[in-house]
Amino acid sequence: MSPTRTPFIAGNWKMNTTPTEAARLASEVAEAVRGVAGVQVAVCPPFTSLAAVAPVLAGTNVALGAQNFHVVEKDGKLVTSGAYTGEVGPKMIKDAGAGWCILGHSERRQFFGETDAGVNRKIRACFEVGLLPIVCVGELLSEREAGQTEKVVETQVRGCFAGLPADVARQCVIAYEPVWAIGTGRTATPEQAQEVHAHIRRLLTELFGAATAEAIRIQYGGSMNAANAAELLAQADIDGGLIGGAALKAPDFATIVKAGA
Asked: Can you give the CATH number for the domain in which 79 is found?
């Protein structure tokens, strides 16, 4: 971690927790990390639990995020509401209390066909409605084994951030998630993770300049847990974690948060 960037630990609850369960877990998390300074914390429940969790987190040091939203572009303008049955727009999650939103998670890319261009639209929509994005990038196991990690991640970063000004990019968080390490129990070694994080920061320097690249936080998101968090977070370019399974257990999540403090 860099002394100039505040570490950011965010919990991705995925398709877990009813509103009642989410409110209880949020309360447990808020209590477990109460008073922990020097680290930013957020939890990202499902859409149906946002409104239940928001009042629980009010006045705590835990922010609220969402996991996705829908937006389209017509005639050069972003459309964030309308006739899209079953979808949820960014204004809706903002009004429900979210301040952050995960974009382009590998599960969204794999199962729902999300693209870098779509993530780019969502980043722009975030700033239209007052949300901050956590932008996910990462390679498949086959791509890593073929030596394509840096190429794949570079393509994703360039596509997601295409056309964005530096002052917008500076406010985004990037989460590097090696797809082969998500939910598998496998984790990139601290050295493997640091290598990709450093590559991303070099790319950001090329795109936006050194000052902006140095300011952007890059989380690690591949099976970070209570046992390995401290070693991962000790790396120079790892600025936090996007936590999956371990985020569903308040004590484990709190251990990760404290490792980042």
From this structure: 3.20.20.70
Annotated catalytic residue within 114, 143, 177, 197? 177
Q: Tens digits of per-residue pLDDT, 155-179?
A: 999 999 999 999 999 999 999 999 8
* Structural domain count of the chain: 3
- The answer to whether residue 256 sits within a structural domain is no
Q: Which of 105, 107, 114, 143 is catalytic?
A: 105
Cα 191 off chain centre by = 21
Full residue range of the structural domain in which residue 151 is found:
115-126+144-170
Query: Any catalytic annotation for residue 214?
Result: no
CB 228 within 8 A of CB 192: no
Residues 72 and 16 reside in one and the same domain: yes
**Angle at CA 106, nearest 5°, toward 103 and 110?**
120
The residue written with tokens 């609850």 in the block is 13
Q: Annotated catalytic, 177? A: yes
Q: Is the pTM of this model over 0.85?
A: yes
